[in-house]
Amino acid sequence: MKQIKFVSPAEAVKVIKSGDHVHLSSVASAPQCLIKAMCDRGRNKELKDVHIHHLHTEGPAPYADPEFEGIFQLDSFFVGSNVRKVTQSGYADYIPIFLSETQRLYRSGVLPCNVAMIQVSLPDQHGYVSLGTSVDATLAAVECADYVIAVINKYVPRSFGDAFISLDDIDIFVQEDCPLQEAHFSVPSEIETKIGNNCAALIEDGACLQMGIGAIPNAVLAQLGNHKDLGIHTEMFADGVLPLVEKGVINGRNKAIDKGKMVSTFLMGSQKVYDFIDNNPGVAMMDVGYTNDPYIIAKNPKVTAINSALQVDLTGQVCADSLGTKFYSGFGGQVDFVYGASCSKGGKAILAMPSVTNKGISKIAPVLTSGAGVVTTRAHIHWLVTEYGAVDLYGKTFQERARLIISIAHPDHQEELDRAAFERFGEHHHYIKATTPLK
Predict the structure, then answer these.
(1) For the chain, how are helix, strand and coil distributed in percent, rounded to 5?
(2) DSSP symbol at 249
(3) What is the phi-psi region of residue 283: left when phi exceeds 0, alpha when psi lies from -120 to 50, beta otherwise?
(4) What whole-number distance in Å separates Cα of residue 149 and Cα of residue 116?
(5) Cβ-count burial of 248 within 10 angstroms (0-12 exposed, 13-18 middle, 19+ buried)?
(6) Residue in 58, 192, 235, 387 annotated catalytic
(7) What is the rounded distance in angstroms from the CA atom of residue 97 to the CA atom of residue 325?
(8) Is 204 among the catalytic positions?
(9) CATH of domain 9-175
(10) Which of 56, 276, 275 is nearest to 179 (CA)?
(11) Among 104, 192, 276, 281, which residue has the least CB neighbours within 10 Å?
């Protein structure tokens, strides 16, 4: 096995040069000690025009702060909450991209990768370390980087799938044992629980699930205790799946590919989730080019994908990445999974959201707010769910769509939406009751 010579974080980041492109492993795996050492070099005016790339990261992202203008330029693949303000104010930027294609940016050479800064598990007896909770585009960065700096951290779980890399692929080693960033989710509100119920009613036994993160996915999962033979093929999962695995509800028996395995590309949750994947051959942490490829997704039957939206218009256009002209998140894997699920035999693509914002503004609008980005197009949308019901828009005309969408809007806003639909489509609209199919 390769002899490992450890250096300090400050020594490790000396390979970064002005003008370099640096990839950081993402979500819970952001290598904080290397980030801090890199920023120290920036403060000492040793670097300029260094481009930083990552999916979203948990924890501090100091390189994006205004103090580093001209030194570090964050060009992220997704706008996480820790860099939202600086991105909206122009100190950081965002590359709009399907999550499935983030790895292709490196592999195709569209983006150079000079330095990959990653965090990995302890090596095994064969000289392999695991990328643990985040494979995503990091594997591609490791393949393409001029230098790979790895923090070996005993808290990184040894996950299976595409997560293993050889010690020979790492140029510089740092040791830091530091627990991974944890994410804890609030208990679903009454409205989120209703949305969860309406989504759960659409999930059949034997379905293969993808769902994002947050209160609504957790509310959905909480309703699935009596389901049978569910599978997981997703971009990420969190604590909500664990009780269903323990009960045997999630077992992957009905999957056509990766049978019996839970497939994901990154994880975010409490220490319980990180412990769950450690040395667990039932979980495959795969390259994002695999998990999010719509054609791979579609190979499993009954793929049921549940994603969220910020705003939907009366024709079924879905804005999920911005509030007007302000960037809020990113494309992420929504289109990958909406398309993949809709191509799956018996699959269902579901977009779920509360009918109004916290301030009572309708999230169903006659037209999207000026500057809002369409993530899922009106040709991609199938099921739309709010706390007032679930409607299937696939194959429906604009007039039929408008009626169905208005039927699950907040009652306080239905009249105004109806008027807007009448003016736009010129047909007399009358509400029709939302149909949530019974299981």
Answers:
(1) 30, 20, 50
(2) S
(3) beta
(4) 6
(5) exposed
(6) 235
(7) 17
(8) no
(9) 3.40.1080.10
(10) 275
(11) 281
Residue with tokens 């983030």: 102
- The domain segmentation of the chain, as residue ranges, is 9-175, 190-425
Tokens representing 190 are 């009454």
Residue entry with tokens 């980005």? 373
What architecture is domain 190-425?
3-Layer(aba) Sandwich (3.40)
Query: Does 190-425 match 9-175 at the fold level?
Result: yes
Give CA–CA dist 293/119, Å, rounded: 25
Token reading at 308:
């969220």
User: Which residue's entry shows tokens 């007399």?
Assistant: 428
List, in sequence order, every residue forming a beta bridge with 94; answer none if it has no partner: 76
